[in-house]
Specification:
The protein has 393 residues and is mainly beta. The chain contains two helices and 27 strands. The chain has helices at 10-19, 134-137; strands spanning 3-5, 31-32, 38-39, 73-80, 83-88, 94-98, 102-105, 110-113, 125-130, 139-148, 151-162, 165-177, 187-189, 195-198, 217-221, 237-240, 245-250, 256-260, 272-276, 301-302, 311-317, 320-325, 331-335, 345-347, 355-360, 366-370, 380-385. Strands 1, 2, 4, 25, 26 and 27 form a six-stranded mixed sheet that branches. A five-stranded mixed sheet has the order 3-8-7-6-5, with no helix packed on it. It is globular, with a radius of gyration of 20 Å.
Length: 393
Amino acid sequence: MKTRTLFPLLSILLLAACAGPGPTPTAAPAATLPPPEVQSTIAPSAPQAPTAYPSEHSPSPEPEAEPIQTVPVEVIAEGLNLPWELAFLPDGQILLTERPGQLTLLEGQQRLAIEGVLHRGEGGLLGLALHPNFAENHWLYLYLTSEENGAVVNRVERYVYTDHSLSERTPIIEGIRGATYHDGGRIAFGPDGKLYITTGDAGMPAAAQVLENLDGKILRLNDDGSIPEDNPYGTAVWTYGHRNAQGLAWDNQGRLWATEHGPSGGESGNDEVNLIEAGKNYGWPQIRGLQTAEGMVTPVVESTRQETWAPSGMAFLGGKLWFAGLRGQTLYALPVDDLRPETLERHLAGEYGRLRTVVLGPDGLLYITTSNGNGANAVDRVLRVNPALLGED
């Protein structure tokens, strides 16, 4: 696989894409980020009224810019510590979370230490989402693991983000059980303007079937944390029966898809791609893989017991769901109009280690984070991938 290491400013890249083809940029060393140094100061905020949005999903548009990358993969940053989520600011700069507790502005090489983060096992600073009207309100959302009264918990918080500083800390949802494993953590705004949140079963499988708790669920909230009137159970719960969903993406028809980790240990495998529909029960722990039961949904595609993907972040591009594999160490692609195990594509297998996040950039390329560190070693990278140039493994 031909790989270039490059770290151009995203704003320059976008201008070049609009101007048409130009000379190939000269390769430069990838940016290596320094250790965390900056501590955020967070002030409480007054409550805000929820923002009104249309009640129906609209198709998610794909970027119009033509990709200008001429090699399949470019390493645009390295020296990161377990990056978990990535988002693009309106000016094209990249903001990401690092699981030990840092919110990092990639190109400015600036880190903010987020207060209250407990980095233990799979927990820490996980999901990141920008409000659909971020350019006006500067609202930024984080999913994090913390400790309260001796118990491990997960929660979502909202901040005002300006000039790489945080203020007006506002709890959005609390009471999500945390654990060393199965913390979920993906958050994303849908085409309907609602905030979707994946939670894990926190090592207590039976909790995924209990509608009265928030564990092993996909949640749906208004932007202020209130419950949308059309949620199926009158609570934050949108769907249930999930073991540890970690990827969310909407296709061009407005349909929501999720990736989910199957059993581990001696029963490893049965990782899933699911079509998410309101109120449905996705079966964990009663069924797994392609098993069936009345009132429960089986995945559209699963890995079988012979293979483990450990799927995480996901994006939709070119009619395909692109998702990262941690244990699989692979970038997978699944066409939504032909959902069969035989159509699942495998790319970059083993070339960059464990892959965590896949995000569609404003330039029409995929941005992928690796997850090869251990909390002490900052060895992870951000990759920029041109899917049109990938060969299937």
